[in-house]
Amino acid sequence: MTGAGVLAVVLIAVAVAVVGYLLVALLDPERF
Questions:
Q1: pLDDT tens column, 1-32
Q2: Whole-angstrom Cα distance, residue 2 to residue 27?
Q3: How far apart are CA 29 and CA 7, in angstroms?
Q4: pTM more than 0.70
Q5: Cβ atoms within 10 A of the Cβ of 1, count?
Q6: Spatial distance between the Cα atoms of 22 and 6, rounded to a whole number of angstroms
Q7: Residue 29 per-residue DSSP state
Q8: What's the number of CA atoms in the CB half-sphere (13 Å) around residue 15?
Q9: Using an 8 Å Cβ cutoff, are 14 and 21 in contact?
Q10: How far apart are CA 3 and CA 11, in angstroms?
């Protein structure tokens, strides 16, 4: 896999993690 491919995978993983965190924060604010 090329460097650009690795970077794309990392960016997608970070984006998914951020979106998931925001969804949890919105749906279950008592946890924070």
A1: 799 999 999 999 999 999 999 999 999 878 76
A2: 38
A3: 32
A4: no
A5: 7
A6: 24
A7: G
A8: 6
A9: no
A10: 12
